[in-house]
Amino acid sequence: MNQSENILGTEKIGKLIKKFSIPCILSMLVNSLYNIVDQIFIGQKVGMFGNGATNIIFPIVITCLALALMFGDGSSAFMSLKLGEKRKEEAGKGVANGIVMATIISVIISIICIVFLPHIIKLFGCTQNIEPYALEYGYIIVKGIPFMIIGIVLNSIIRADGSPRYAMFSMVLGAVLNIILDYILLYTYNMGVKGAAIATVVSQIVTLIINVIYIRKLKSIKLNKNLLKPQLRICKEVVALGISSFITEMSFVVLLAVENNILSKYGSESEFGADIPITVLGIVIKISQILNSIVIGIAVGSQPIIGYNYGSRNFDRVKKALKYVLFTSLIVSTIAFALFQLIPEKLIAMFGSEGPEYVKFACMAFRIYLMLYIVTGIQIPSGIFFQAIGKSIKSVILSLSRQIGFLIPAMIILGKLYGINGVLYAGPVADALALIIASALLIAEIKSLKNESAEKGALLVDDTSTDNKLSQKMVITISREYGSGGRYVARLVADKLGIRFYDKDFVAELSAKTGLSESYIESNEQKRKTLDTLNNGYYVSLSNADELFVKESDLIREIASKESCVIVGRCADYILKDNEDVINVFIYSNMEDKIKRAVNTYGISDKDAEKEIRNTDKQRSNHYKHYTGMKWGDPQNYDLCLNSDSFGVEKTADIICDTILGLQKNSKN
């Protein structure tokens, strides 16, 4: 166990969370301020229509952010995984392919937006009064899309390379420069929304340049021209690793598009008109996002602490960390709630002074739409908590339920019934429903946590023979379909050859090395559900399953370098593919025989056996595909593929042993 893992299991919870949370909070605050600074200056110098323009263009910015995070988080996760596997060249290919994809896609998106911007802003609810400002601001912003996307991608890679301070420096410098340029271009040169857009793009260019300077001298890998050629397999893996970030951000784009159109429709039927609701609610949401950034940062800081202690079955520390996060998050959300309810007119005044209707609607928006903002201190940390413990389905439900599942339908229904007031009341309705779901899932999970300590027992020793019959060191990896008898075949091979057998023993040794409990490892290894793709964490590059795979890879290579053995599953054939002394075997069987074996061996009913077999094999296939980019069970990946029912398990084991002994005999001759 390394020092950081010791700290996660022993250091005071509050001290740990502060250590991990502060960088996250600062990073997310910088991103949030980037989005809102333009609006403050525009509101003061241009007015309501200028602010409305930034809200109309905002969905385009978020779409670009979604793409940037997909390529950036995907590249950094790919890099971390491959470095964990000691495959530096492969890591370099992933980073290079991520950068190339980001460059190509960002240029295409920029061109599309330049050509079709008048049509795009209509989709986002642009009104006639706001349109000229939106076009003036938008045409400059979309020309800067490549700088924005590539800069964010490089920032993620720099963090994964072990330089979070440099990544933070480039972001903060860009944000500060944006503020300075906003002031100069709007106040000194009176350039209006055009000046704000130029300030943003120039700041993005400077951030990109600073990041490029670092990328040329990466510590972990070396990039060269040969790596820049796109490879479909690697591109797909990078996208798969980053798709969680993309979906999360795009759900917000969908919300903004629907929201602006509903506000335009029902606003035009009210005393406020269409322009005021679109402008004001956009500002209200961006202000609330600043506070959300703090809550998210606190929760993200707890991810490694909760994940590690959950894995090591130290549930007391899991509960303490969760209580600390909920308590501090509720303090933040309570303070924010008080500000929204008590001084909304002062908050909106930062964005310029307009007529009485404007101020009236702003006060309504803060007090009604954010009426239950306090529950954010529970809802957001709950989703991140389930990410930390690897419960992907619950995490996805909590991440998307409020915006997509509750808020959009509530806006449509209540808007139709009560007009613009109904649209505002959709906010607390969605918050209340999201709170109910989050609380129910959280309470159920806390009740299920047991308070016993982790059982770290010593490495179990199989009773395989130690009379090694091999003349040279040889590692046999055996992958198998569930119910094929493959594990028993592997056990027989180890026994017949007189070498070690690693399956349950492997779990015990990994537990001893990492501090994670055996039950946690058994529950999470070699099993990847479809929704696990959506479970990559905020701000961090690797999920719990990814970290576990890296540790398993290290242990497999360590074992394979020392002794002859049989290793069951765990992508060992891929992990050891560069080793010459490895034979890879795949054991399969027909469904009827697998069902019989599952019933007899595991005691499950005929009815449930086939479902269990298909689910388990699907999870193994997903796991193998995710970490290798190859198809599980494809004969091209193995040296031997055997049907255990054609020969029987005993004869199958004999065939494997005879093949290996024959190969070693021929190599001597």
Question: What brief labels describe this structure?
Answer:
single chain; 669 residues; mainly alpha; Rossmann fold; 3 domains; 5 strands; elongated
Order of helices and strands: HHHHHHHHHHHHHHHEHEHHHEHEHHEHH
In total, the number of domains comes to: 3
Number of strands: 5
Evaluate the radius of gyration. 28 Å
Percent helix: over 70%
How would you characterize the overall build of this protein?
- α9 packs across α10 and α11 packs antiparallel against α14.
- This protein is mostly helical and 669 residues long.
- 74% of the residues lie in helices and 4% in strands.
- The protein has 3 domains: 1-20 and 270-453, no CATH class; 46-266, no CATH class; 475-668, 3-Layer(aba) Sandwich (Rossmann fold), CATH 3.40.50.
- The two termini are 45 Å apart.
Give the topology, please:
Layout: H1 3-10, H2 13-45, H3 48-84, H4 88-123, H5 131-143, H6 145-160, H7 164-188, H8 192-215, H9 232-268, H10 275-311, H11 315-342, H12 344-349, H13 356-369, H14 376-388, H15 392-448, E1 475-480, H16 486-497, E2 500-502, H17 504-514, H18 518-524, H19 544-562, E3 565-568, H20 572-575, E4 582-588, H21 591-602, H22 606-628, E5 640-643, H23 644-647, H24 649-668
Parallel strand pairs: 1-3, 1-4, 2-3, 4-5
Helix pairs in contact: 2-3, 2-7, 2-8, 2-10, 3-4, 3-5, 3-6, 3-9, 3-10, 4-5, 4-6, 4-9, 5-8, 6-7, 6-8, 7-8, 9-10, 9-15, 10-11, 10-13, 10-14, 11-14, 13-15, 14-15, 16-24, 21-22
